[in-house]
Amino acid sequence: MELKKLIYTVEDGIAVITMNYLKNLNAIDEQMADELMYVVDAAEKDPAVKVVVIKGAPKAFSAGGDIGYFYQLIQAGGEVNMDGLISKVGAVADGLKRMSKMVVTSVCGAAAGAGVSLALGGDFMICADNAKFILAFVNLGLVPDTGATYLLAKAIGTARTMELAATGRPVTAQEAKDWGLAYQVTTVEELDAATMKFARKLAAGPLISYKNIKKQLYDAVYADYKQWLDGTEVPTQRECAASMDFQEGCKAFMEKRKAVFQGK
């Protein structure tokens, strides 16, 4: 596959996946989701790869979904169907948890929407001190998707997950560290070096042990993820995406005004 929105390199046993579509702050559309699925599969199958690193840009890890695209569809009177995108990004998050190799996500700037799920998809997250995590779906009249509520509920419990999902408030890098979501917080300038230092340490470790630790944890915690995605997340988001509230939320976001929701 020709990669248009990602850069993929393998060196010294470390595969680095860099989201590289700064035009819309690495918002994840179906093309980027397809490319992510492709490189995650390639890394899993490549015996030269011992560790995977996923990173974004200094300004943003990923802005989540492409709201501008949804806005254009709404303005044109078209239907917004997110089923395919949700399933693909969800499959990426599941693939990272399921894969036999350790995954380090390196987060600088904003991780919003689906970007939160991708950041949580790794086994270790290293953040710059300017990182922030935003489940902004509720501001658009949507529910979190791409596995966000599933992954967060497993990691920080239902009360905190409810707070973040229902309010959309940003979580700072330090909060993420205090809650156990982030493994390490460093400066923007030192993030790449800290990430690669840790990735090299993992690459020199007992890979068979790592593989089986991941399998134990996957079977204990994430085994029903795909069933939950298909049976709960996709249909709940489908209902929200068909609502007038979503149209209003999307228009308000693009038009830089406060949304007026009516529960319809």
Describe the structure.
By secondary structure, this protein is an alpha/beta fold. It has one domain (6-188, 207-254): 2-enoyl-CoA Hydratase, Chain A, domain 1 (Alpha-Beta Complex), CATH 3.90.226.10. 49% of the residues lie in helices and 16% in strands. It has eleven helices and ten strands. It has a six-stranded mixed beta sheet with strand order 1-2-3-5-7-10, with helices on both faces. The chain has a four-stranded mixed beta sheet with strand order 4-6-8-9. Strand 2, helix 1 and strand 3 (51-55) form a beta-alpha-beta unit. Helix 3 runs antiparallel to helix 10 and helix 5 crosses helix 6. It is globular. The N and C termini lie far apart (42 Å). 43% of the residues are buried.
Present the secondary structure layout.
Blueprint: E1 6-11, E2 14-19, H1 30-45, E3 51-55, E4 60-62, H2 67-75, H3 83-98, E5 102-107, E6 110-112, H4 114-120, E7 124-128, E8 132-134, H5 148-156, H6 158-167, E9 171-172, H7 173-178, E10 184-186, H8 191-203, H9 207-222, H10 225-241, H11 244-254
Parallel strand pairs: 2-3, 3-5, 4-6, 5-7, 6-8, 7-10
Antiparallel strand pairs: 1-2, 8-9
